[in-house]
Amino acid sequence: MLTAASDIEVLARFGRALADPIRCRILLALCENPAYPAGLADAIGISRTRLSNHLACLRDCGLVVTVPDGRRIRYELADARLGRALGHLRTAVVAVETDRACPDAGEKGCC
């Protein structure tokens, strides 16, 4: 069965977003509830500038959206199914050899 190029692009974007632990923490927090940047930065324990960069990446990857709320901007998952997918990924059994690192573990970057 052939996979459409768009399917591969979606998975690649998801993978790039999940490649960073801070972005993972942001996504998991947004699975719980939509959030405002200040509260999200405090909850995760990072600066607002750093959070802003990660939120921009997640927006560019198409995983989060902004929702205007008066003079404030709220962030939430772009699709509720993303939360379920993250839940499935968290509980998936992964075959990990403790003496090996992920080949891309040292790479940085985003979508």
Automatic annotation (TrEMBL):
Pfam families named in the record: HTH_5 (PF01022)
SUPFAM superfamilies: Winged helix' DNA-binding domain
HTH arsR-type domain sequence ranges: 3-97
Signal peptide annotation: none
NCBIfam families in alphabetical order: HTH_metalloreg
Matches recorded under PANTHER family: HTH-TYPE TRANSCRIPTIONAL REGULATOR CMTR, TRANSCRIPTIONAL REGULATOR-RELATED
Protein name as annotated: Metalloregulator ArsR/SmtB family transcription factor
Species annotation: Streptomyces broussonetiae
Source organism phylogeny: Bacteria, Bacillati, Actinomycetota, Actinomycetes, Kitasatosporales
